[in-house]
Amino acid sequence: SEDRRIKDSIQQELSRKNEENNIAKLDAELADPESELMQLASSRKSTDIEKGKRYFSISCATCHKEDAGGMIGSNLTDEYWLNGNSVRDIFKSIYYGVPDRAMPPWRHSLEPEKIATIITYIRSVQGSHPINAKAPQGKKTGYAQ
After folding, report:
1. Is 35 in contact with 29 (CB distance < 8 Å)?
2. For residues 85, 90, 91 and 93, what is the CA-based torsion angle, rounded to 10 degrees?
3. What is the mean pLDDT of residues 18-43?
């Protein structure tokens, strides 16, 4: 019916605006090194690293291996990065995905705080040189910053 189409159209527009607002809020948090999200992603606390390791194991290890040495996905323990190695770059790669590299977007299944702890874990395994790690890919930019 016409009423249903109008209601659906309004709902779609509200959803689109809500998503835009969420993206703007997230961009602001990622731009502010003092935001709670950036502080969590930069944490060196063992409890945050352990949480990140659990989330990584559940969501990321299938492609990046348990030790983050890479398999289908890239090696996250070396100094070579395909999409940038800043906390903000890594966050955006996880949140939005990287379609041309088969990296799915996780924004619909992982809250920003979980992504931040995953980054904490990734940063903790930098330079760990896991056995049978995937060969370097991308530009040598140093370890995740």
Report:
1. yes
2. 140
3. 91
